[in-house]
């Protein structure tokens, strides 16, 4: 690959096996970055790595459950072992489930928080010493659910609000550091995860309509653009912010 905006940079992307994580990984590679691809789905990781290699890029992979602190540390270690540095951490991995209140079990609650909050937190903890050295940056992918009450997604929305608060709190903690920490809040995206989701059988369509938006959902490539801005030198003045890319869902 030729030189691009991320030439010489090393980028770790969680959720890289599909959807936004895969789209972002391919774009980072096209812009010259070396990638550490992280996901629970090893087959999807292999496919993303194959596409990067086929286009002349370089990547390493790590498959593991990021709800486990040890896996987070190992994922970051894989990036360092592979390329000797880390410049960008993109916490894209996450899960979405729709449930009526009465149907939320402890396992559902704990799984959502493990994937959507615990994983990003311990990825940041493991990556931070390396990002300080490279004056790098972090982007946490949240959601419009961090700002709007959304029927049938109470646990998911709680995780995304928590991740947004985590982003801002760590941005303050590292205010005197060269590291930048931001969030990106997409609306609906046409990903495999969204296409296979099901609402509760007795869900009220009028409540769902309040947060699905008037404009069509985005494609993952559409959301890659603001992600590239936040993680690039073009976004060097942006710290502790959340950029919405939701086709107007949160505008009114």
Automatic annotation (TrEMBL):
Pfam families xref list: adh_short (PF00106)
CDD domains with a match to the protein in the record: SDR_c
UniProt family annotation: Belongs to the short-chain dehydrogenases/reductases (SDR) family.
Protein name as annotated: NAD(P)-dependent dehydrogenase (Short-subunit alcohol dehydrogenase family)
Organism from which the protein derives: Actibacterium naphthalenivorans
């Amino acid at each position: 690959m030729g030189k691009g905006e991320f030439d010489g940079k090393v980028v770790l992307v969680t959720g890289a096996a599909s959807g936004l994580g895969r789209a972002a990984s391919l774009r980072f590679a096209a812009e010259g970055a070396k990638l550490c691809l992280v996901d629970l789905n090893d087959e999807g990781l292999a496919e993303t790595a194959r596409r990067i290699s086929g286009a002349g890029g370089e990547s390493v992979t790590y498959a593991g459950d990021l709800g486990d602190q040890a896996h987070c540390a190992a994922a970051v270690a894989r990036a360092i072992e592979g390329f000797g540095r880390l410049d960008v951490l993109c916490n894209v991995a996450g899960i979405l489930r729709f449930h009526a209140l009465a149907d939320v079990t402890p396992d559902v609650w704990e799984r959502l928080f493990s994937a959507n909050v615990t994983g990003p937190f311990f990825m940041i903890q493991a990556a931070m010493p390396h990002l300080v050295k490279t004056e790098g940056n972090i982007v946490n992918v949240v959601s419009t659910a961090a700002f709007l009450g959304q029927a049938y997604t109470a646990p998911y929305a709680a995780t995304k609000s928590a991740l947004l608060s985590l982003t801002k709190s760590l941005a303050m903690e590292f205010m005197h550091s060269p590291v930048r920490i931001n969030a990106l809040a997409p609306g609906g995206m046409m990903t495999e995860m969204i296409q296979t989701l099901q609402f509760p059988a007795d869900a009220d369509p009028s409540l769902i309509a309040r947060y699905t938006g008037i404009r069509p959902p985005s494609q993952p490539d559409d959301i890659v653009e603001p992600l590239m801005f936040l993680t690039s030198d073009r976004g060097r003045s942006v710290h502790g912010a959340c950029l919405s890319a939701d086709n107007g869902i949160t505008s009114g």
